[in-house]
Amino acid sequence: MKHPMMTAAIVGTLAWSAAATFPLAAQAPSAESAAPTSPAPGKTPRTADGHPDLSGVWWRGADVGGKGFGGGGGGAQAGGRPAAPPTTFSSLYQPSAQAHAKTLADKDDPTLHCTSTAFGTLNVSLFDVGAVGQIVQTPKFMVLLTETFNGFQIVPFDGRPHRDNVPPSNRGDAVGRWDGDTFVVDKTNFTDTSWISAEGRVSYHSDALHIVERYRRVDANTLEIEATLEDPKVLTGPWVVPKQTLQLAPFDQIMELACSSSDTQSERDAAPPPQKTSGKN
């Protein structure tokens, strides 16, 4: 089954990839509104409080199927031996979770109904099911923006604890702190109705999901992200996500990538028409 959100993500990514060669018309810098001058190569920009500035639009810097998108397939190790398959969230399922996963398929993917993931299809929570995201840093908050579903996450880093008066959510409740030059994000209070990723990759999780991410801006144009996911109700142990390396995009704003679901449209088309009333009491 062809997944509509995969199509949307690819279309959006191709549009952004084209911007690497020539900016989109709406984002092409002009004399009146040019993008800020980038810091000198190799120098990490910093805010007034001395912390690294993570602000910017971040992506993999390549077309779908190119560098960073896993287009090469399995590959092989030295000596011609096949490379071991990467560890995934679902590969760590407990036996009971494996049994439940076998009852699920592409048609059960929550993103078909425009529900965001709990983590991200490309192993980058900033992307959700897309391939580009934006960070806006303020003195108290780190704001993480995704193109898909108009998603966002506000991460306070002024020492406040997790909120205990908000309902569970697809992206969880986040708080942050600085560990030297690394920004650490701790996420809890998830729903159990989203998946870790999308495009039919069965990766359900429980409400015990706990995610810790570490963001480090290596230089002016490079952001490294590490993450560890724990879910004691469904996993045999923590999933340590491979380090992700993102590049600063050649544009300084993301755009809207609206959710379009063929399943959702079919349900809407099949719904009975609203009943007419006379307006009389």
Number of strands: 9
What's the overall average pLDDT, rounded?
81
Radius of gyration, rounded?
Answer: 21 Å
Low-confidence stretches: 5-38, 70-76, 276-281
What is the C-level CATH assignment? Mainly Beta
> Strand content of the residues, in percent?
15-25%
Write up this protein.
- With 281 residues, the chain is an alpha+beta fold.
- The chain has a single domain (4-23, 42-65, 86-269), classed as Lipocalin (Beta Barrel), CATH 2.40.128.
- The protein is built from 3 helices and 9 strands.
- The protein has a 9-stranded antiparallel sheet, with no helix packed on it.
- The model is unreliable at 5-38, 70-76 and 276-281 (pLDDT under 50).
Quick structural gist:
The protein has 281 residues and is an alpha+beta fold. It contains three helices and nine strands; from the N terminus they run αβαββββββββα.
Question: Which features would summarize this protein structure in a list?
Answer:
single chain, 281 residues, alpha+beta, Lipocalin, 9-stranded antiparallel beta sheet, 3 helices, 9 strands, 11% helix, 23% strand
Summarize the topology:
Blueprint: H1 4-18, E1 56-59, H2 95-101, E2 132-137, E3 141-146, E4 152-156, E5 173-179, E6 182-188, E7 210-219, E8 222-230, E9 239-248, H3 262-270
Antiparallel strand pairs: 1-2, 1-9, 2-3, 3-4, 5-6, 6-7, 7-8, 8-9
